[in-house]
Amino acid sequence: MNKYLTQKKYGNGDIISILVNDLYKEYKYNNILFIRTSSTGMFLDKLLLNNKVTRVLYKVEKVKTQFTSHKSTKIINSNELENTLQLLNKNYDLICIDSFHEYDVCKRDFEVISKFLTETGIILSHDCYPINKNMCTPIYKFGNWCGETYLAFAEFAYNNPEMYYGVLNVDTGIGIISKLKILFLTNTLDRNKQEQLLLLHKNNSDVYEYFSNNSKDIINSY
Q1: What is the C-alpha to C-alpha distance for residues 154 and 77, in angstroms, rounded to an integer?
Q2: Which residues make Cβ contacts (< 8 Å) with residue 100, sequence separation at least 6?
Q3: Using CB atoms within 10 A as the burial measure, which of 129, 181, 194, 200 is most buried?
Q4: What is the separation, in whole angstroms, between the first and last Cα of the chain?
């Protein structure tokens, strides 16, 4: 784990790319899913693991700039994600997502992709620990923006306590979800602090300071 924690780069997906490659080599995943949006996750296009990778890019109306994608990517509208995965009719050992960072979209994405995870599967998510408050605006902005992915991750952990969680506090936060206890992951999290975080968010309070002060208990950050 120190291999990742000592990295200094952020925002470009380098560290999460290293982690994806290491996990792929360690666990010999057969079915892999990459999900990015029209404004996030360009690093996923550079990850060339094998021909078993399914790639999905969903377009977001408010994002005017549409980045190019890997040639094998399925390009869909944002609200078509679940239906697209149902039509593919597969479960995945590794799902790596860089969601559109507004809260409702991130919450939806975590709920959707978890339905398509194998019993030994793992989810990796970018932007689960923003490095400062300025990156956490709830509404889309161009540039260095993590939005509220970190809150959606915490809510998913609260709603699914049987799964195992951890966040590497490097880059802009690498969130990890697993059905099995692997690596440093745990499902022993402080539900009272999770509830308080979600209550602060519901009341439109300043949640980032509370999150950063209690992240170890809320999402098992390292």
Answers
A1: 26
A2: 37, 39, 40, 58, 60, 63, 78, 106, 109, 140, 147
A3: 129
A4: 9
φ, ψ at 34 (rounded to 5°): -110, 130
Relative orientation angle of helices 208-219 and 149-159, to the nearest 10 degrees:
40
Superfamily name and number for 2-219 = Vaccinia Virus protein VP39 (3.40.50.150)
Which amino acid, residue 67?
Answer: F
Q: How many CA atoms lie within 13 A of 49 on its CB side?
A: 27
- Domain residue spans of the chain: 2-219
Which of 90, 100, 16, 104 lies closest to 63, judged by CA?
Answer: 100
Average pLDDT over residues 65-75: 81
Instruction: Tell me the backbone φ, ψ of residue 153, rounded to 5 degrees.
Output: -60, -45
Contact 41, 35 (CB under 8 A): yes
Helix H or strand E encompassing 2: helix 2-5
pLDDT at position 8: 59
Mean pLDDT for the stretch of residues 119-137:
95
Structure token pair of residue 103: 């809260």
The model carries a pTM of 0.94
The Cα–Cα gap between 126 and 17 comes to 10
Encoded amino acid at 79, one letter: N
Helix (H, G, I), strand (E, B) or coil at 170: coil
